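RECORD TYPE: inverse folding
INPUT: structure tokens
STRUCTURE:
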């Protein structure tokens, strides 16, 4: 289902393999976001279309993650060190790419963020401490793989300058929202425990940029870090 007139759509995902679901247990704590409630791995790929095989994925050499402070005032403008993803999300990513659909005449660079957020008792798990934001790419897929004992975690989509979201909804396990990141902003309310016991929400976020606009390499890193120096962040 392509993006609708409001620049988003919600899709059903192919069932993830057991090793993908199990790998969330081995995600290290994210030292930069989530106040100790987020666990994360990160990898980057180049995608290109092969007529006989569909989307082909090249795993790029692992690098620190950098983003701009204008997109993430909480942890932008610094080098974030994450361990690489251990499992294969490419089947799910290909399903998202087909649903947008991405331009098959272009190569795409993607950032893949594997995140688990925990909550328990009165301790919530903030999902978007940076607030309502854009990620800075052309398209974004936010896919939910598991929700265990979770309350909250409502996805909200916003137009520029709006005082309220134009859409809000709870993504269930096996669903993804696809966004035109240049047209709309988004946030997600905190993960809460439904009964006070341990809770977690497992997702994968995929950010798609055309290769010529890639978020990869020394040139991109210099630009993201230089913005921090200019703004004094």
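DESIGNED SEQUENCE:
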């Amino acid at each position: 289902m392509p993006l609708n007139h409001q620049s988003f759509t919600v899709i059903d995902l192919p069932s993830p393999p057991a090793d993908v679901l199990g790998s969330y247990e081995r995600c290290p704590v994210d030292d930069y976001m989530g106040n100790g409630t987020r666990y994360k791995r990160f990898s980057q790929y180049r995608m290109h279309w092969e007529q006989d095989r569909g989307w082909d994925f090249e795993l790029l050499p692992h690098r620190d993650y950098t983003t701009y402070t204008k997109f993430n005032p909480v942890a932008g403008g610094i080098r974030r060190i994450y361990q690489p993803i251990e499992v294969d999300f490419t089947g799910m990513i290909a399903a998202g790419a087909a649903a947008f659909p991405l331009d098959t005449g272009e190569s795409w660079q993607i950032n893949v963020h594997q995140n688990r957020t925990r909550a328990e008792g009165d301790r919530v798990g903030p999902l978007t401490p940076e607030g309502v934001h854009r990620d800075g790419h052309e398209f974004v897929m936010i896919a939910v793989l598991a929700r265990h004992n979770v309350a909250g975690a409502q996805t909200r989509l916003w137009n520029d300058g709006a005082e309220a979201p134009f859409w809000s909804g709870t993504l269930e396990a096996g669903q993804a929202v696809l966004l035109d990141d240049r047209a709309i902003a988004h946030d997600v309310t905190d993960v809460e425990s439904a009964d006070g016991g341990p809770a977690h929400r497992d997702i994968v976020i995929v950010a798609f940029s055309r290769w010529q606009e890639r978020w990869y390499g020394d040139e991109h890193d210099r630009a993201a870090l230089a913005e921090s120096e200019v703004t004094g962040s």
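NOTES: The chain has a mean pLDDT of 95.
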